[in-house]
Amino acid sequence: MNPCLLIPIFEHKDEIGGVARELERFELACLVIDDGSGPETRAVLRALERAYPWLSVHRRERNGGRGAALKTGYRLAAQRGFSHAIQLDADGQHDAADVPRFLDAIASDPDALVLGVPRFDATAPRSRLVGRQLSRAMVWLATLSFDVVDPLCGFRGIPLASAVALLDAVRTGDHMEFDPELVIHLQRRGVAIRSVPTRVIYRSEGLSHFDMLRDNVRLSGVYARALLGAPGLLAAHLTRRIGGAAWHTR
Ligand SMILES: Nc1nc2c(ncn2[C@@H]2O[C@H](COP(=O)(O)OP(=O)(O)OP(=O)(O)O)[C@@H](O)[C@H]2O)c(=O)[nH]1
Ligand SMILES: [Mg+2]
Fold it and tell me: Higher model confidence: residue 207 or residue 158?
């Protein structure tokens, strides 16, 4: 097992320094994907690269969206020989102290996709909590299972071989819809899902790139497409069950 840390960033210049400081103690390589941020964030990232030899920044010249940045990150991490990426956000919402929990989870099941399950406090906006419940229900229906406790949390342990194989085979979204889309596809491909509870904090001055209209439309598109595939999935499940039963009665 050879894990790295992976952080997609777009204009979170005020928070990324604190996140990097928190991560230093783990002595892991950290790949930061700068998704076309402006000069101020770029300068902060350059200073971090100088301060922390274990942190390297890969820059995408134009902003392509969180999904696009994550996909760049998975491919790059795999090319650099890492087996897993522990992915977390640049805005300090994720509790870096939980990195060892993700490391433990991937060590105990290296093939699994490890998903953070957010423990919110009173800072979490209500709209996000409601949206989350809807997303959970959609993913349960789309996967015909309760394997996925939270399909949206950006704190994750990614098995890179499975993720890159998926990216080579399937076209996926470039924005916030990528996170649940990845989960649905990997679960359907038989990748085991593990959950790690983790604290998520919303700071009042925090900058959010979640576009309530556009990102919700994109998310709905992912769920609609996944649900269209659900009857085929159900038929395959039933065929396997019936086939299995016939085998046992022989
Ligand atoms: N690379 C890249 N990263 C992005 C983009 N949008 C967001 N991010 C990063 O993805 C992470 C999450 O972005 P946020 O804007 O906080 O979105 P969110 O956490 O889903 O939304 P909130 O719950 O409102 O915070 C942060 O690390 C961002 O810097 C983007 O267009 N490109
Ligand atoms: Mg955020």
Answer: 158
* Residue 35 Cβ < 6 Å to ligand 1: yes
Residue 119 host element (H or E): strand 113-120
Yes or no: say if 55 and 32 are a contact pair by the CB < 8 Å rule. Answer: yes
Q: Looking up tokens 């392509």, which residue turns up? A: 64
Integer Cα distance of 23 and 118 in angstroms: 19
Q: Which ligand has its closest atom nearest to the C-alpha of 9?
A: 1
pTM of the model: 0.90
Q: Is 159 in the pocket of ligand 1 (CB under 6 A)?
A: no
Which numeric CATH code is attached to 3-249? Answer: 3.90.550.10
The Å distance, Cα 200 to ligand 2 centre, comes to 9
CB 116 near ligand 1, within 6 Å: no
**Residue of 19, 59, 91 best suited for mutating to test ligand 1, as the one with most atoms within 8 Å of CB:** 91
Q: What is the pLDDT of residues 129-173, one digit of tens each?
A: 888 899 999 999 999 999 999 999 999 999 999 999 999 999 999
